[in-house]
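Protocol step 4 of 6: structure prediction from sequence.
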Amino acid sequence: MKKILVLVILIFNFGIGKGEAFFPKFEDISKQWQEQYSKLKYIECEIKWENPALSIRIWKSQERALEEWVKLKNGILQVVGACLRNGHKVIASTFANAPRQSIIDCFFYSPTIWKSLGVSWNKKRYVCWNDQLALKIGEDVFCLYLANERFYPLGAKLGTVSLGWGNFVYLGNYYLPTSGWITNLSFSRKFQIKWGRINTRSQNIQFSREWFDARYSAVGSFLPISCKSLLNLLRSLP
């Protein structure tokens, strides 16, 4: 199977005979991304980390996003931190130095955003990514890996930060990952993703500063020490 995949990659990269290799244009990839994900207005998910044993619950409505950091303490699940964002701006948080975005936000970056982060769309080639055909865009230091034909992201490398997604499912007309990893020069962490509502907003969640302050007034102002390395890792996201 791997030999067949290698042969396919060679054909895609160099063409056959006098033919030329075919690489989709930036405009075509952008158009397909728009068709796939631009109608996604609301999501709920839970990211479960292996180390530390922590879950991050996320509610996202267009530009607004709410996060709860939940940890098992004395046999009881407790909220140990929370933050509220508008785009990449933290507008409220129970702890200092909250990340400007989540790893889920990175998955939904448009081709235009990846381009603005330094990925060169003039460099393209087909590669093997976890035993499947993928389109690599950019140089080794700043690059993006897309699923062949569907063009949803499989992984990316931006300077010292690398991240990837896997075990995709088809939910609510969208291809969504259920696992992934992130690494930088100091740390590496794996995670699982459990999806909740898609484009059906919960009536129990609001995204105002007043609602946030009332809901999390009893949450301490410091995350557990065990969360420090994960916090620093998420703060390195582009």
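Step 5 (inspection) to follow. Helices lie at 2-14, 26-37, 103-107, 111-116, 209-215, 228-235.
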